Amino acid sequence: MTNLSLAIAVFTLTLFTSCNLPNEEKQIQVIDELPKLESNTIVVTQIDSSKFIIDSTTKLMWMKEDFSLLKGRFLNDWKEIFEFRDEINIKTYGGFSDWKTPTIKQYRTINKNKSDRKKYQENFSFLDSTFVWGNGPYAFWSQTTPNKHTASYISFIEGFATSGNREKQFSSKHRSYKGVELGMSVRLVREL
């Protein structure tokens, strides 16, 4: 069993065993849809551990697949990350309905240096398309907003985090792809 499988198994076991309702009869149901429930009923949805990666150091759970892989396209603008988050939570992606749009600080926990970016490429799934910058999205939007016109994003290719207009992003730095629309995505996170 790999460390990741073990972490997921431990997490899943903890999730199922830590459901306590004081002084009440307990009922545990595994369900696919949310019916009307009595106040003493605990709902546990099906957990699909192939859909997430757990960072045991930070206690963060990341979606293994990002927006671009699930939708087959890049984001149109920054606002779309919140629509995607809401859609994922309604669908209880991986068995959870509390996914959040990450902050730059949270993204940094899996993108501090070249070694982190190499591990990221090995462990996370991304759109299998080749662009001028390489495979997958160029950068990922965050919920971090320095002001009302900009939002922050982070590159898992080059490692930088910066802020820009909340619309589509275009390269202005690299001669080889100056003016090219950059593929923006988002990878949701949840706290354990």
Task: State the oligomer.
Answer: single chain
Q: Tell me the structural class.
A: alpha+beta
- Within the largest sheet, what's the order of strands? 9-8-7-10
Encode the helix/strand succession as letters.
Answer: HEEEEHHHHEEEEEEE
Shape: globular
Tally the helices: what do you get?
Answer: 5
How many domains would you count in the coordinates? Answer: 2
Report the sheet-strand fraction: 15-25%
Brief synopsis:
Helix content is 24%, strand content 21%. The chain is an alpha+beta fold.
Describe the structure.
A hairpin with a 4-residue loop joins strand 3 (52-55) and strand 4. The chain is built from five helices and eleven strands; from the N terminus they run H-E-E-E-E-H-H-H-H-E-E-E-E-E-E-E. It is 24% helix and 21% strand. The protein has 192 residues and is α+β, with helices and mostly antiparallel strands. The protein folds into two domains: 1-47, no CATH class; 58-191. The strands form four sheets. The chain has a four-stranded mixed β-sheet. A three-stranded antiparallel β-sheet has the order 3-4-11.
